[in-house]
Amino acid sequence: MTAEEQNFGPLTGIRVLDLTINVLGPVGTQILGDLGAEVLKIEAPEGDPMRKIGSSKTGMLGPFFQTTNRNKKSVVLNLKKPAAKKALFKLAATSDVFVHNMRHAAANRLGINYHELRKTNPKIIYASATGYRRGASKEARPAYDDVIQGESGLVNLIDRTNGEARFVPMPISDKFCGHALASAIGMALFYRERSGRGQEIHVPMLETMLSFNLTTHLWYGTQGKKDELGYPRALSPHRIPYQTKDGMVCVLAHTDEQWHRLLNAIGRADLADDTRFARLAQRADNISTLQSHLAEGLANYTTKEAFELLDSVDLPNGPVATLEGLMRDPYLEETNFFQRIEDPHENSVQTTAIPIDFSLSPGSLRNAAPALGEHTREILVESGISDKEIDQIIEIET
After folding, report:
1. With contact defined as beta carbons under 8 Å apart, do 37 and 16 qualify?
2. Among 45, 118, 138, which residue's Cα sits nearest to residue 395?
3. Handedness of CA 99, 104, 106, 110 (dihedral sign)
4. Closest CA to 130 of 199, 71, 200, 80
């Protein structure tokens, strides 16, 4: 790691070998890179498929790839070739984390499973993410985000709210599981700091998303009932942005006191004393009816008036923003949320800020996503691989 890369986050000094592609793994490893880790993105000669999605000057640095692969270095290794695999194991000897999202049968065929890697580095954190739990009947099945959205009940939740089975308009399973992967790696590093021991981590997408969804929607399943699942407030057809005279507003009251303030503000103090709505438990049973009354009340105001009214009684509220509108949002300009990284391949890339603050060890945006194989020679030289061996490896890749 160069001097310029020192002290850029809580993971400064940690080296990650990142064999992931697509979305889930790259999201997780980018989090590690943002927080200071040196992330070596080990790519096949054809590169991560996401490189080619969306336009870019080079045709290999598309916007989707850019948003999930900043703060990384690209090393091309064809792991089907002995010289390249030997180089990978040499890198693993000086790395802290090894992470992939291929199915375990593929990792076994390549000889890069935990059993083999820990021979090279007993303290390594070996992390993987696949569709289903290891050792279960579905272990070998392929899985992508849309499949997991369906299997985890997420599509059904949308169907129950609006009568149309649809996917969430983003790879939410991939992204959430990527965050879970980064979190698990961080905790394993902490455990190693305490114990001196490396270990293997596996993140199964289905079980991770089930845990995510059922945190709210297990409902009476907590009592062993199998036919009364789903959080009523979240599934209410009236849980939508409220229409005003000229637009929409988002507002949420939760406590008894907040609801009383809200109902008084819209001129429906009578509902605050209604036994169906006066207390949290009763509101939970009648939330859809209450939300319909709230919709009727807010429809009497313009959007500006609604915001002023809700602010006056200190209730959480906000607009229904468009993606394009976010790029011009005064608050996001104030917090410098959209930032630019200079990129020798794309001139300049706009990206999002690191959302998490650390008072003593903040993360940093050090570099845009790398060109395919941009750092192959540099990293292999650092690892003590001879020029002759590197020439053989690069020749193999080309």
Report:
1. yes
2. 45
3. positive
4. 200
How confident is the model over 249-266, as pLDDT tens digits?
999 999 999 999 999 999
What residue type is 62 in one-letter code? G
Instruction: Please report the pLDDT score of residue 5 as a whole number.
Output: 46
pLDDT, position 8: 78
Is 0.90 topped by the overall pTM?
Answer: yes
Would you say how long the chain is, in residues?
A: 398
Query: How open is the CA angle 199-48-68, to the nearest 5 degrees?
Result: 75
Distance CA 128, CA 100 (A): 5
| R_g of the chain computed on alpha carbons | 25
Distance (Å, whole) CA 224 – CA 373: 53
- List the chain residues with pLDDT less than 70: 1-7, 396-398
Cα 317 from Cα 250, distance rounded (Å) = 5
What does the alpha-carbon distance between residue 172 and residue 208 come to, in Å, rounded to a whole number? 12
* CA atoms in the 13 A half-sphere facing the CB of 157: 23
pLDDT in the model for residue 7: 61
Q: What is the dihedral of CA 316, 322, 326, 329, to 10 degrees?
A: -60
Q: Is the dihedral of CA 69, 361, 348, 346 positive or negative?
A: negative
3-state secondary structure the chain: CCHHHCCCCCCCCCEEEECCCCCHHHHHHHHHHHCCCEEEEEECCCCCHHHHCCCCCCCCCCHHHHCCCCCEEEEECCCCCHHHHHHHHHHHHCCCEEEECCCHHHHHHHCCCHHHHHHHCCCCEEEEEECCCCCCCCCCCCCCHHHHHHHCCHHHHHHHHHCCCCCCCCCHHHHHHHHHHHHHHHHHHHHHHHHCCCEEEEEEHHHHHHHHHHHHHCHHHHHCCCCCCCCHHHHCCCCCCEECCCCEEEECCCCHHHHHHHHHHCCCHHHHCCCCCCCHHHHHHCHHHHHHHHHHHHCCCCHHHHHHHHHHCCCCEECCCCHHHHCCCHHHHHCCCEEEEEECCCEEEEEECCCCCCCCCCCCCCCCCCCCCCCHHHHHHHCCCCHHHHHHHHHHHC
